[in-house]
Design goal:
Cytochrome p450, two-stranded antiparallel ribbon, 8 helices, binds protoporphyrin IX containing FE
């Protein structure tokens, strides 16, 4: 519970911030939404988040491109099955590549591009969600052994991201441009950014 519940959410927040720093136009739009909804308030509340549709789309897009647990958790099949012509005998260790599924050009237009609006106004992808019903997007797995912490994780990440964007303006240091940001991933059960993400925060009043 502890390892599944801490690193995962912070890694998602990091990847989301990295993508926003690479895409200042998206950062600007999402900040307009957050600051518009929470205008005059001291802190962001869960009620505010419900009106932040672009923020939710940005987090979804980050989960599609950077699932924090890219190969989910290895599982063992309980009975003989056939999937898309492949025989999977009982007791086979099955590893599901959620990273590759999220970047599959069969399901996603320009899969390597960070385009959060695909979850807002694209007829084919706007209804896709990560709750385990749409197999094109399974960063939390699916079925009986899917992540039980989805709701908690998403609430925390939405609140943290909205608060960071509400209270601060963000930029890359030393005039580094977004294209130069090192997006190399680390191998392992968790997919971290290889280089630490450095960003300059300026308070917004
Ligand atoms: C962005 C955050 C998170 C991501 C991406 C994530 C992802 C995952 C994935 C991929 C699995 C395996 C699913 C499968 O094999 O089908 C999993 C399982 C699990 N997660 Fe999460 N998780 C996150 C947050 C959390 C949080 C906040 C908690 C607890 C508070 C949590 C607790 C667990 C537990 C206990 C399991 C094992 C479930 C089982 O085997 O029955 N996770 N998670």
């Amino acid at each position: 519970m502890f390892s599944g519940g801490t690193d995962t959410s912070s890694v998602l927040l990091l990847w989301t911030m990295a993508e926003l720093l690479r895409h200042p136009e998206v950062m600007k739009e999402i900040q307009e939404e957050v600051r518009g909804v929470a205008r005059g308030e001291a802190i962001i509340t869960e009620d505010d988040i419900e009106q932040m549709h672009y923020l939710k789309a940005v987090i979804k897009e980050a989960l599609r491109m950077h699932p924090p647990v890219p190969l989910l958790v290895p599982r063992e099949s309980t009975e003989n099955s056939k999937i898309q012509g492949f025989d999977i005998p009982a007791k086979t260790t099955v590893i599901i590549n959620a990273w590759a599924i999220g970047r599959d050009p069969v399901s996603w237009d320009e899969p390597d591009k960070f385009k959060p609006k695909r979850f807002l106004n694209d007829a084919t992808t706007s209804n896709i969600d990560f709750m385990g019903h749409d197999f094109q997007l399974i960063p939390f797995g699916a079925g009986r052994r899917g992540c039980p912490g989805i709701q908690f994780a998403i609430t925390i990440v939405e609140l943290a991201l909205a608060s960071l964007l509400f209270k601060f303006d963000w930029a890359l240091p030393n005039r580094v441009s977004g294209e130069d940001l090192d997006m190399t991933e680390t191998p392992g059960i968790m997919c971290h950014l290889k280089s630490p993400l450095l960003a300059v925060a300026t308070p917004h009043f």
